[in-house]
Prior knowledge:
It is a single chain. The protein has helices spanning 9-12, 30-43, 48-55, 61-72, 83-96, 100-105, 112-137, 147-159, 168-171, 227-237, 243-248, 252-262; strands at 18-20, 23-25, 204-209, 218-223. By secondary structure, it is mostly helical. It has two domains: 5-72, Orthogonal Bundle (Arc Repressor Mutant, subunit A); 83-270, no CATH class. A two-stranded antiparallel ribbon has the order 1-2. Strands 3-4 form a two-stranded antiparallel ribbon. β3 and β4 form a beta hairpin. The protein starts with 8 loop residues before the first helix and ends in a 20-residue tail after the last helix. 28% of the residues are buried. The structure holds a DNA duplex.
Amino acid sequence: MGVNHSSNPALEMGRPPCFEDGLNKGVWTAHEDEVLGNYVKLHGEGKWVNVAKATGLKRSAKSCRLRWLNYLKPDIKRGNIALDEEDLIIRLHRLLGNRWSLIAKRLPGRTDNEIKNYWHSTLKKKVQESSSNHCKSKKKPMMEPSAESAESLKMDSCLSPNKDVINCTTSSSAHPFPLLFPVDEHPEAFTPVEPSIDGGLGKEIVAEQPPESGDEIFPVNISCGNDALWDSLMDFDVDQLCLSEILEENFASFSEFDSMTVGECGINGCQDDPLPSFSDLG
DNA sequence: AAAATGCTCAACCGCACGGAA
DNA sequence: TTTCCGTGCGGTTGAGCATTT
């Protein structure tokens, strides 16, 4: 963060490049950067396997791609992450989990690697601290749900005899978070889902809705296997919202939802069961 | 002042996915 | 349908710096 990469600080630190299998590994030199930059300017992004052949760079295609995307790309924004960006990262992480590339798409000029590093080095602690404070008044942490809570929710979702699977279209008015995708366009995403124990991607995410009265639990069944739902979530994300818009978004109710549901189990609660790919997003 | 510890961040690794052959 | 290849993503590593003891 805030590092002048044009001067290649790591090299200045004296970290030598490593040569292995005929390929350079480790820190990029200024000359390599220049060669790669020139190549991309001429030929555009992609075809990374050709870079080494065409330029003589002793770098793997992956390495070239990473270097370009993370450092050489002209619109890369360097420097400290602003408070609003930080806030956005936290919100998006709450919503998307460790989908760094998706989060990065919402922060123009920031890379997934940068955000990921920033999260692990800074934000994770902040969030944990705030959630531990939060937990003094609320019984469970907002973030990084425990396996226990996730497990308990799976149990709720799968085994509770009283469980009703709520159709989101009909429960939206009472929904604790704003619907971020148009129901009309994705009715299939809101059809009731039979509870099931599924070892694969079909595992459900079940979020407890705040009971309107009493302690009854009304799980909202969000099936991970329901592509349509995830498409819908992706629709929410697809290049529609940028920093300012998201920050202006009223997240109050959503945060409330997070603190009670998703934050405890929801999306992240499925971490041992990877979410469906968002790779076709954007 | 020196050692120990923690932090930052660039880069690598392995896996998954999608398209082409 | 299967295999191969290129690409993208998230997790992890490791070197150097900063801070603490």
